[in-house]
Amino acid sequence: SQQGEEDPQALSIQEGENATMNCSYKTSINNLQWYRQNSGRGLVHLILIRSNEREKHSGRLRVTLDTSKKSSSLLITASRAADTASYFCATDASGTASKLTFGTGTRLQVTL
Amino acid sequence: GAGVSQSPRYKVAKRGQDVALRCDPISGHVSLFWYQQALGQGPEFLTYFQNEAQLDKSGLPSDRFFAERPEGSVSTLKIQRTQQEDSAVYLCASRKDGGEAFFGQGTRLTVV
């Protein structure tokens, strides 16, 4: 079963705008990861945030983690048409190469 | 290899037919995972190997599903007597340690 929910399920924005996606999960975690999936393709890792971290940046990506609320957010700044994809959060309960449990995903559409 | 390789990319099977899906992980990656992804959903965990040992098969939906990794590298996911509900994309991923997972492009299985 899915670990949690992501919202919104779908998001449509114009190029240059920021996109924010939220993820909620149910159990304790070692780390939380965000992945992108283009239509018909495999998942690509974007960023990993550990349970003792609150915020992390990578290029145009900013991830926050609130373990007390069991939630995370992914912010993509200055979006581009190429950012159009589905975005998934995934939780790792133990951090020892154990399974990742994925959320339901947010479908992002960036229009010109 | 350069990445995780899955074959075939597409498979059409008649209901009742057996299928075998192959995954070549990244060389040196100890952990290998199989996921099932239905259309519009996030990946659902099926099973996990550490080297040749299958440590978790809790996600396999029925005893028609069987996975093996006999030499700790290539893995095969076998589905016997396929049913229409087995139609999905089957994703393989490998991890070196507790960090990011590297996914293959997936095998899209359609049971007719």
Structural write-up:
The complex is a heterodimer of chains A (112) and B (112). Chain A has strands at 5-7, 10-14, 19-24, 31-37, 43-50, 55-58, 61-66, 71-76, 85-92, 100-102, 106-111. Chain A has 112 residues and is mainly β. The radius of gyration of chain A is 13 Å and the shape is globular. Chain B has 112 residues and is mainly beta. In chain B, a hairpin with a 6-residue loop joins strand 7 and strand 8 (75-79). Chain B is globular and about 40 Å long. The mean pLDDT of chain B is 95.
Give a summary of the structure in a few sentences:
The complex is a heterodimer of chains A (112) and B (112). In chain A, 0% of the residues lie in helices and 55% in strands.
Which spans of chain A have pLDDT < 50 for at least 5 consecutive residues?
A: none
Radius of gyration of chain A: 13 Å
In terms of DSSP E residues, the strand content of chain B is over 45%
Mean pLDDT of chain A: 92
Order of helices and strands of chain B: EEEEEEEEEEE
Helix content of chain B: under 10%
Number of strands of chain A: 11
Mean pLDDT of chain B: 95
Blueprint of the fold:
The complex is a heterodimer of chains A (112) and B (112).
Chain A: E1 5-7, E2 10-14, E3 19-24, E4 31-37, E5 43-50, E6 55-58, E7 61-66, E8 71-76, E9 85-92, E10 100-102, E11 106-111
Chain B: E1 5-7, E2 10-13, E3 19-24, E4 31-37, E5 44-50, E6 53-56, E7 65-68, E8 75-79, E9 88-95, E10 102-103, E11 107-111
Parallel strand pairs in B: 2-11
Antiparallel strand pairs in B: 1-3, 3-8, 4-5, 4-9, 5-6, 7-8, 9-10, 9-11
